[in-house]
Hints:
Number of helices: 3
Radius of gyration: 14 Å
Structural class: alpha+beta
Shape: globular
CATH architecture: Alpha-Beta Complex
CATH superfamily: tt1808, chain A
CATH topology: tt1808, chain A
Distance between the termini: 13 Å
Order of helices and strands: HEEEEEHEEEEEH
Amino acid sequence: xxxxxxxxxxxxxxxxxxGWVSLALDLRISDRDVLAPDxxxxxxxxxxxxxAPAQVVAPELVVEVRSQSxxxxxxxxxxxxxxxxxxxxxxxxxxxxxxVLVHRRSAxxxxxxxxxxxxxxxxxxxxxxFPGFELPVAVVFAV
Length: 143
């Protein structure tokens, strides 16, 4: 998780107006649901409510790292909730298969995550949200 956040921070620092990345902020996606992803990214810091106990605007990117106790929830109900809430892209880091499951919308107005990819350890993670960003998946799992 820290390696992903670090690489996103480097990408942000290499240009202008590249948004804001954070570790584990509470996201209030409904009156009953508050989620805290491992990493999240907003394209515009102005969208954040800095003093709020939980963010009420969807980030463009959410990253969840596999945990034995929550993985089925992450790939199922949580993925659906992020999708419904309007997150543009979700990265599910699978520590068992050493891959990243990517769910994204093919266009900003696409109603669902209509693109699904599995990016393996020998591959490089890229996203249309981050022009020029490249993260070899092996770096995510390096010891």
